[in-house]
Amino acid sequence: TDLERLVRVQVLDLQTELRQRNEELEHRGGLLHQRDHELLEVTNQLAEVQSLFDEVNGQLETECGRIENLQETVGTCARQSQELEQLTGMLEESHRV
Fold first, then answer.
1. What is the pLDDT of residues 25-70, one digit of tens each?
2. CA-CA distance, 71 to 24, in Å (whole number)?
3. Residue 77 to residues 33, 64, 66, 73, 74: CA-CA distances in angstroms?
4. Neighbour count for residue 2 (Cβ, 10 Å)
5. For the chain, how big is the Rg over CA atoms in Å?
6. Could you tell me the CA-to-CA distances from 57 to 47, 66, 68, 88 in Å, in that order?
7. What is the 3-state secondary structure (H, E, C) of the chain?
8. pTM of the model
9. Measured between alpha carbons, how far is 81 from 11 in angstroms, rounded to an integer?
10. CA atoms within 13 A on the CB side of 59
11. 72-90: string of b/e by CB count within 10 Å (b at 16+)?
12. What is the pLDDT of residues 61-73, one digit of tens each?
């Protein structure tokens, strides 16, 4: 009958639509899987970069400590040089008297 034919056509249409939706979902699932993989790679690369930054930061801290020590040494040398000049001047003056 016409009603049965109409129902069969609707069933076929719905099955076709279901198949299309399933294919679309599979495609999207594949894309999500690919993006997850890419995100994992990026996360791993960022962890490597962070490790390098940590290493460089440690080296910078070490070098800053060395520079501070050098600055203190230069300051001490400058004061000692000034004191030596004063003592030399006093010694020369005492020889003149």
1. 999 999 999 999 999 999 999 999 999 999 999 999 999 999 999 9
2. 68
3. 66, 20, 16, 6, 5
4. 6
5. 41
6. 15, 14, 16, 46
7. CHHHHHHHHHHHHHHHHHHHHHHHHHHHHHHHHHHHHHHHHHHHHHHHHHHHHHHHHHHHHHHHHHHHHHHHHHHHHHHHHHHHHHHHHHHHHHHHC
8. 0.57
9. 102
10. 6
11. eeeeeeeeeeeeeeeeeee
12. 999 999 999 999 9
Both tokens assigned to 72? 């203190």
13 token code pair: 């249409």
Place of tokens 């040398």: 77
Place of tokens 């690369």: 45
Tell me the one-letter amino acid at 2.
D
Overall average pLDDT of the 75-89 stretch: 96
How remote is the C-alpha of 15 from its chain's centroid? 50
